Amino acid sequence: MAVATRLYQNYVNGRFVSAQGAKTLPVENPATGATASDVPDSSVEDAREAIECADRAQRAWEKLAPIERANYLHKIAAGIRADAEHLARVLSEEQGKPLDQARGEANGTANYFDYTAEWARRIEGEVIASDEPNDMQLLLRQPIGVIGGIVPWNFPLYVLARKVAPALLTGNSIVVKPSEITPNSTLELGRIFDEAGVPAGVVNIVCGYGPTVGEELASNPLIGMVTVTGSIRTGSRVMELAAKNITKVSLELGGSHPVIVMPDADLDLAIRSIKAGRLLNTGQVCGAPDRTYVHESVAAEFTERLAKAMGKATYGNALVDEGRDLGPMVSARQLDAVSGRVERAIADGGQVVTGGKPAEDKPEGHYYPATVIANCRQDMAIVREEIFGPVMPVVTFHDLDEAIDWANDSIYGLASSIFTKNVDVIMRACRELRFGETYVNRENMMENMQGFHAGWRKSGIGGADGKYGVLEYTRTHVVYLQYDLAAGRA
Ligand code: NAD
User: What is the CATH code for 257-440?
Assistant: First the structure.
């Protein structure tokens, strides 16, 4: 059953507050076109106030022992688990993802808070040998201060956890700006942060648009690091603004994930994995398989079987038709973008094997069916651009050198995959694929929280997850310490 239309508030300094002038913006349910909620349309001044509160709160927060901060993260995780079904419904309603995936995201978000909390006793500094007698150097890991966290619409809860959990654990405070398209689930989390007793001002949520709230987070001098998950355009703009104050940036931007299918690949596994990865979140995943390169000797069989498997995918409204593979695209804009890319691919010589145009039977929502396009070439826009929808172009290759060259020929460098049983080919791929991630004989999944999610080229700078994702939220402070002055050289 749909959740009723409601009015949310920002969460600032431990209080739920409206934007100045009580300005609001509507949030759409993409399955029906109805308004799901109204949220604050915050101003630059609203964002500034939250940043100042976060700055004041951070000083006391960093003095807590890490294990005490970790206990708050465990409480947040427990709160999310206790409320997972509600959170999943709010998430599906605003974002469109099938309910089982929304439940997975809510539970994955709880797991992320617990996992990050476990780092409390494992963040270590270093004691470095000095060139002088009675002298040592201590490398300390300290918080950066106030973090600005800018979140996209595709995984509003999980991406938020990737920012809030390591920021808090390491003693920072944070001001989060959810996407204006999917703020509801984030604001529900605000209540959970509050119920977990997180001290006022340590986590703040300010809703609104990129050019107002987002740009203030990138350009305010009190921000020590701004972390963005979003498009290249946004990442580039944030970097430009951050340059004014030499503010650290951490950017997780788009991807165009090549999948190489070798002649000896287990085709059942490859097709199952590509289908699952491509259709997850209705194709709106930064690391999802985006272009398949299949060896000419198996191309016909592979393409026919992939199209058959993808053609079986069902779609529907997450809150009404449970158990569907796909939800609607997040917005009319996103539907038009995907539809336009497929039309251009057809005009460029691509051959639609399944799908290929917006669903006609559900005009109330933004539905696009699973699509496979054969006869694609490396020079086609559908192969070169991030698709962000349930569409897979297939390109045929002659030998491994060609496949690796084409895979690397991209402005993106986030994720890549290869299916083969030949260990020599696997090792070449690991060495020569120029990407932050390579998946070998398996699908890419969201919950790889102990890895490191970091893109090459325009896919980003810095990264999230694992040890390096936690350390991203620290800065070094080296102490050069001379002791035993009476006996020493001083
Ligand atoms: P987007 O860049 O339009 O929006 C992302 C966030 O940035 C939103 O909160 C938005 O309001 C904000 N924003 C927009 N303009 C801004 C500005 N001028 N200054 C500051 N903030 C601004 O991206 P999106 O459409 O929400 O998400 C889709 C994109 O995100 C895709 O390219 C996708 O690949 C990428 N993405 C990457 C990852 C990753 O981990 N690498 C994960 C999810 C999504």
Answer: 3.40.309.10
